[in-house]
Design a protein that fits this description.
This protein is α/β, with parallel strands linked by helices. It has 4 domains: 3-138, Response regulator (Rossmann fold, 3-Layer(aba) Sandwich); 165-282, Alpha-Beta Plaits (2-Layer Sandwich), CATH 3.30.70.270; 293-419, 3-Layer(aba) Sandwich (Rossmann fold); 451-617, Hypothetical protein af1432, CATH 1.10.3210.10. Helices cover 52% and strands 13% of the residues. It contains 24 helices and 15 strands. The strands form 3 sheets. Strands 2-1-3-4-5 form a 5-stranded parallel sheet. α16 (457-472) crosses α24 (605-617).
């Protein structure tokens, strides 16, 4: 059925160009150059299937026009017609404002025709899905009159594609029930997957009681920001969070959970205990079932070959897209994500080999798409060249139906197996990294527990180190490494007697020698971790001084490893801002003066100045032991 679009734009050139694109997409277009013209027309005519309004129209303006269209008298006559904003450039405030008015999507004026048409068709599909579920809910309401039903406009507000943030959607329990029902109907209807995930937060530390409510809120916000905007969240109880992960494969669920917990613990430590339960819902058919059909692109200049291959594959439940040249494949590949490409070798203008070379150069994502060459040539040279270019296999012409089907399916299955193995390896690697991080965090906590007055010291030093490294230009991986080094910089204190560490009076020379030996002992402990050799670096030299006179080796200047110079200033800052048996934390002004006084003497000037910047930005003096 031809869709009828009302297009509103005061720019005549834009109106014609976009109207031409929509018309080529088999859509009927009625054009207006003002909002008034649109509203006047609607007063005496039928409603369209969609209204597209430029955000910069003259006259009463886009926002006022949309408000009028959403008035009860218009909704009564024309229903909830999807309204789409047309934009060349808009601010975030504009996007939020138009979204609140009921705009269901945005089109960019500079978009390519295919991109624009695909976006419009996607909006139509989403709008139809919402209308279907509301109709279904209304039907249920007639059977259960006592059940409250939300309106289409409210449903649209909840499910509308959000342009502003890319976070999960937090709903109250009533809204969650309705949206959950809609999503699960969609997942069942289209044979997708979903996962119900329950997090339970408990407080193992009595000293956290006053902060527990705040910590629960922080974890909720953390989960929201870690997930996609297609996922939804609610709180069944005060200390539980329920998450619906939509359209997700089971192999990725552990990765999602691991990522949420790993990043939480790395930032906050074990301040609360978090457990979780998982229930995976799968409605997928078999690998070659109706709703998980293989998608294959066939490229061949011979019309009969195209028809024959398409007939064989489609008869066996495989979706086929036919193309007549290598250039057509290059032009259209970004619009498709096939499971396999069947590519003819001998084609005019651009043969299969050149097409494959240009495809790999043009589309990095195409490296994951297996290629099978089609050829009537039996020469070894042809096969050798094709395999060298990365083809998975060759299929001889004329086609033998069973051979064609088996090779297509086996090639796709092999490719998927390889990808799943890579994902599994990556998952196991992240699991190991997460486990290692927990061990390191526990070790750091054990170190801090020896000193009555340095609770949380290692974690704070690690966080300060990471921030200094980030500002200095370290990569994300390098920031993670120095965070780990900061956590374990005092590991050598394990070998120092508790009585010496916690002695409130002045240390004797012998006792101070024991303290001064902890860098050497820490380096000796950590040098056995071959995978992270720099852990020992931070432990051994974080008490060296930039101007000389530090310990254990008396290094100075740039002879001190860079990471150790970062840890030195972070360690000194935390020592001054933490409680001690003989004093309270120093004032921020005093700390700043000490850091400034130590530039070039105790501290590397570059890292000391970064720490001074951090101090100046911390106007409420929150960067300290609390």
């Amino acid at each position: 059925m031809v869709k009828w679009i009302f297009l509103v734009d005061s720019d005549t050139v834009s109106l014609k160009n976009i109207g031409r694109i929509l018309s080529k997409g088999n859509m009927r277009v009625t054009a207006f150059n003002t909002g008034e013209a649109l509203l006047n027309y609607l007063n005496v005519n039928h409603s369209p299937d969609m209204i597209i309004i430029d955000s910069e129209i003259t006259g009463i303006g886009c926002g006022e026009t949309i408000k009028t269209l959403r008035q009860p008298e218009f909704l009564k006559n024309f229903g909830d017609v999807p309204i789409v904003q047309l934009k060349s450039k808009t601010s975030r405030d504009d996007e939020i404002r138009f979204g609140e008015l009921g705009v269901v999507g945005c089109l960019n004026k500079g978009a390519e025709s295919d991109e624009m048409l695909n976006k419009i068709n996607l909006i139509f599909e989403e709008h139809k899905a919402i209308k279907d579920v509301v109709f279904s809910l209304k039907s249920e309401s007639e059977e259960n009159p006592s059940e409250e039903i939300i309106s289409l406009s409210r449903f649209s507000d909840i499910l509308r594609e959000k342009e502003v943030t890319n976070n999960a959607l937090l709903l109250n329990k009533d809204e969650f029930v309705h949206v959950y029902r809609f999503i699960m109907r969609y997942i069942k209807r289209y044979n997708k997957n979903a996962c119900n995930l329950f997090f339970t937060i408990s407080n193992p530390l009595p000293e956290n009681s006053d902060k527990f409510d705040l910590i629960k809120d922080e974890f909720l916000n953390h989960v929201i920001h870690m997930l996609r905007k297609s996922d939804i969240i609610t709180k069944p109880t005060d200390n539980q969070i329920m998450v619906l992960l939509t359209d997700i494969k089971e192999v990725f669920v552990d990765q999602v959970i691991g990522s949420i917990l790993r990043t939480w613990y790395s930032k906050n430590g074990n301040i609360v205990s978090i457990s979780y339960e998982v229930h995976f819902e799968s409605f997928s058919d078999s690998e070659y079932g109706k709703n998980d059909r293989l998608k294959v692109i066939i490229v061949d200049d011979d019309f009969m070959n195209l028809k024959m291959a398409s007939f064989i594959l489609e008869k066996n439940g495989i979706e086929v897209i036919s193309m007549k040249s290598g250039q057509e494949l290059l032009n259209r590949i970004k619009d498709y994500k096939p499971d396999l490409i069947l590519l003819d070798v001998n084609m005019p203008e651009m043969d299969g080999f050149e097409t494959l070379e240009r495809l790999r150069a043009q589309e990095e994502s195409s490296l994951e798409i297996p290629i099978i060459f089609l050829t009537a040539d039996d020469s070894n040279e042809t096969e050798t060249k094709g395999l060298a270019l990365g083809a998975m296999d060759f299929i001889k012409k004329p086609f033998v139906p069973d051979v064609l089907i088996l090779r297509v399916r086996h090639t796709v299955a092999l490719t998927r197996l390889q990808m799943n193995l890579e994902q599994e390896v990556d998952r196991k690697k992240k699991e190991i990294e997460s486990l290692f991080m927990h061990v390191v965090q526990s070790l750091a906590d054990a170190i801090d527990a020896k000193d009555t007055y340095t609770n949380g010291h290692s974690d704070r030093v690690a966080r300060y180190c990471r921030e200094i490294a980030k500002r200095y230009g370290y990569s994300a991986a390098e920031q993670d490494n120095i965070y780990m080094m900061g956590l374990l910089h005092d590991v050598g204190k394990i070998g120092v007697p508790d009585a010496v560490i916690n002695k409130p009076a002045k240390l004797t020379d012998a006792e101070f020698d024991l303290i001064k030996n902890h860098p050497v002992m820490g380096a000796r402990i950590l040098k056995n971790i071959k995978e992270l050799p720099k852990l020992a670096t931070g432990a051994r030299w974080h008490h060296e001084k930039y101007g000389g006179g530090g310990y254990p080796d008396g290094l100075n200047g740039t002879d001190i490893p860079e990471e150790a110079r970062i840890i030195a200033v972070a360690d000194a800052y935390d020592a001054m801002t933490s409680r001690r048996s003989y004093r309270e934390p120093l004032s921020q002004e005093s700390v700043r003066k000490e850091i400034e006084r130590g530039i070039g003497v105790q501290f590397d000037p570059d890292f000391a100045r970064i720490m001074l910047e951090m101090i100046d930005e911390d106007v409420n003096y929150n960067m300290r032991e609390m």
